[in-house]
Specification:
about 475 residues; alpha/beta; BirA Bifunctional Protein, domain 2; 3 domains; nine-stranded mixed β-sheet; two-stranded parallel sheet; about 15% strand; binds adenosine-5'-triphosphate; binds magnesium ion; Alanine--tRNA ligase
Length: about 475
């Protein structure tokens, strides 16, 4: 029988719990650490321990950590394996077990617990990590021709230019194990990276010298959606039981069938499914849509939801209809934060959706017109001034115009756009200087009036200050 994602997660955590790991709940997507924008990996909550800045509370831990990676936003719906929001399963050793255990347990989990045939797996090691190579070949029994040595760019982890660092070893699933071709793990038609084992064994100093750490650590990560793709034998992460129910809910609203959808529509379904998970979890973890930092990530993701919803023919607000499905799935996964704040999540997202729908309605016609004119004149470049007008008058962020442009095979004269922006800022500054002068004048006036016994001007004054 096929494993559900909840069974896959539970099997992982139980496996390591049985090997004396402390099972911990997922931490928030918003890290305690002010230097990190979002939780991008299972190790983030343990960073202080790994960095030697906090004492360990236990020698081993295991988690299923919710993660957000905005650097993969353009891969969403394009590759079969990338999300912005995903769950990373992990086992961690804090100065406890090291390479032999980490490697052998990972293998045991995949081949015995998940029952993936060993000949369908292949592994990578860091190019000079003979120790890991030997463990894989001699202790686990992976044939040498299925172990690939990879460069530092790929298989060496460091949290920064100095500090703890070390080689990695990855485990890949092979979709074509009978192929005569030598393995080439970078080929993502044939292979999918499942599990990454990081061996933190060095300390790097300011000169780049590596000193072996006395206390070596293990940090690992395995994408739940990817394992589910493999074990549930579906074409991509989106068709697993983690995301497909969300896509089905969207398909009902769009009155379309995912199965019979065009390639472009399937991409839109995947974007909507992925991003709705991301924004629901982000809002539940306390992030509000805004123009800066984390808030801007929510805004940007939700705008893409709205746009791809429209590409699916959904003209009206629909997020509120889908969030309950997202919430229910998360709850079954043991992530209850959306469920606990469902009203807040729906209200925040719906308000933002409504706002952006209005923006889109105003700007889309203008952009269509611009594209139409360019097509007539045989140009594929949108003038910086036009992109700027869309930004300034219609509230279209540059990346939105860029995205729509790219879908239609157009580019934007970004350099010219930037110059329009700079010019705009210069004008705004001049206007602000003038406004400050006005406020000052009002303040003087209001003081004079209040001395004369009226309080109404105080309010007027305060409003002006807020707006300036
Ligand atoms: P890839 O090379 O496929 O982009 P990665 O090397 O960037 O993956 P790691 O940083 O090693 O990934 O993260 C550990 C594991 O987390 C990966 O092996 C993978 O299973 C999972 N993972 C990483 N990024 C994503 C993502 N964007 N969506 C889903 N799962 C991911
Ligand atoms: Mg990656
Ligand atoms: Mg990788
Ligand atoms: Mg990796």
């Amino acid at each position: 029988a096929q494993l559900s994602s909840n069974q896959i997660r539970e099997a992982f955590l139980a496996f390591y719990e049985h090997k004396a790991h402390q099972r911990l709940p997922s931490a928030s997507l918003v890290p305690d650490d002010p230097t990190i924008m979002l939780t991008i990996a299972g190790m983030v909550p343990f960073k202080p321990v790994f960095m030697g800045m906090a004492p360990r509370q236990f020698p081993r831990a295991t988690t299923s950590q919710k993660c957000i990676r905005t650097n993969d936003i353009h891969n969403v719906g394009v590759t079969k394996r990338h999300h912005t929001f995903f769950e990373m399963l992990g086992n961690f050793s804090f100065a406890d077990y090291f390479k032999p255990h980490a490697i052998q347990w990972a293998w045991q989990l995949l081949t015995q617990v998940y029952q993936i045939p060993p000949q369908r797996l292949a592994v990578s090691v860091f190019e000079t990590d003979d120790e890991a190579f030997t463990i894989w070949r001699d202790h686990v029994g992976v044939p040498a021709h299925r172990i690939q040595r990879m460069s530092a760019q790929h298989n060496f982890w460091a949290s920064g230019p100095t500090g703890p660092c070390g080689p990695c070893s990855e485990i890949y699933f092979d979709f074509d194990p009978l192929s005569e071709q030598p393995i080439h793990l970078e080929d993502d038609h044939r292979f999918i990276e499942l599990y990454n084992l990081v061996f933190m064994q060095y300390q790097r100093d300011a000169h780049g010298n590596l000193t072996p750490l006395a206390a070596k650590n293990i940090d690992t990560g395995m994408g739940l959606e990817r394992v589910a793709q493999v074990l549930q034998r579906v074409d991509n992460n989106y068709e697993t039981d983690l995301i497909k129910p969300i896509i089905d809910a969207v398909a009902r609203v769009a009155n379309l069938s995912y199965l019979h959808a065009t390639h472009a529509q399937k991409t839109s379904f995947k974007v909507v499914g992925d991003h709705l998970r991301a924004v629901s979890h982000l809002v539940a973890d306390g992030v509000r849509p805004s123009n800066v930092g984390r808030g801007y990530i929510v805004r940007r993701l939700l705008r893409r939801v709205v746009r791809h919803g429209r590409l699916l023919g959904i003209q009206h607000a629909f997020v509120a209809q889908i969030v309950p499905t997202v919430s229910e799935l998360a709850k079954e996964a043991g992530l209850t934060s959306i469920h606990d704040k469902i009203d807040l999540v729906v209200t925040e997202l719906s308000r933002e959706e409504q706002r952006f729908l209005q923006t889109l309605e105003r700007g889309e016609d203008r952009l269509d017109q611009v594209l139409h004119n360019l097509r007539e004149s045989g140009t594929r470049v949108i003038a910086g001034e036009d992109a700027f007008e869309l930004y300034d008058t219609f509230g279209f962020p540059l990346e939105l115009t860029e995205e729509i442009a790219a879908e239609n095979d157009f580019k934007i004269d970004v350099e010219r756009f930037d110059r329009c922006m700079a010019e705009q800022r210069r004008r705004a500054r001049a206007a602000r200087d003038a406004a400050e002068f006005d406020v000052h004048a009002v303040a003087v006036l209001s003081e004079a009036v209040s001395k004369a016994g009226s309080t109404t001007f105080e309010g007027y004054h305060a409003t002006l200050l807020e707006e300036s």
